[in-house]
């Protein structure tokens, strides 16, 4: 079983885009995710510049993360969706990650389907994949991949949408079903704090995966591999203790080695 690792810029957000891409290349990682929520990054760089930096280091931009809240298709969201899709196409990115409203307010299933239907031609026209990422937080309006699959089917979006299987959110949602054939990307991160309850886990608890992980990352990865998923496993730790690391190269390399050995 060959693991294909990827790297999300949130792993080392203090690095410039070029420094981050160079870090991935030094780790032997050829797939990266860039973000639209980091300061002085995409807002400061033209998409053609991003494309050139990636090409110079021999890496592929597998996604821009993320369109939010994609399932509330109102206000300025359609305009932002168009702008992100245009940027993705021109930068050479393959996909857009799409995250649902995560503020404690429910979103009706019909509105979720409407948003997917509206986004579908935008993605199709630019040759992009929409990576739908349910968020397992109790306040999330779309917690499970199962509901996302039903909505994608209802919108007739099977050809343009794939799931993000996030090991953190899979655990938080208490979801047991895997959808390997419908998955385009896996996000991996661990929680090692022994005191925090599952329903109280936040992005700030998400660290690199090691032997103290409470999210059953290894079991989840084994299940996905056994089911035939061959896509990338992308590191996405949000904890400040990871962001503050003086040597992210060694830390990520050690996590890669642990996951491979386990």
Automatic annotation (TrEMBL):
Domain named Xylose isomerase-like TIM barrel: which ranges? 21-261
Its top-level enzyme class, in one word, is isomerase
What is the protein name stated in its UniProt record? 2-keto-myo-inositol isomerase
User: What domain of life is recorded for the organism?
Assistant: Bacteria
Which is one GO molecular function term here? isomerase activity
Under the heading Pfam families, the entry gives: AP_endonuc_2
Give UniProt keywords alphabetically. Answer: Isomerase
Q: What is its EC number?
A: 5.3.99.11
